[in-house]
Amino acid sequence: MITQRHTSANEEKTAQACVALREMLADALRRGFFGTAAVEVAIQDGTIQHVRRRMEQLER
Fold it and tell me: pTM value?
C-alpha cells in the first residue's frame, strides 16, 4: 500500500510550488511571450527537498 507523507515540510514546499506556478503563469500568459515555464520539484523518500522554477523566453 502506498501512502503520502503529509508533513509540515511537504505542505510548505507544496504551497511554494503552487505560488511559483501561479506567478510564472501570470508572467507568461500575456501577449508577446514566447518560451517555456517550468516548475521542478525534487523529492527524496517521499519528502520534497526543493522547488525550482525556470523560465526561458525566446527573443523575437
Answer: 0.79
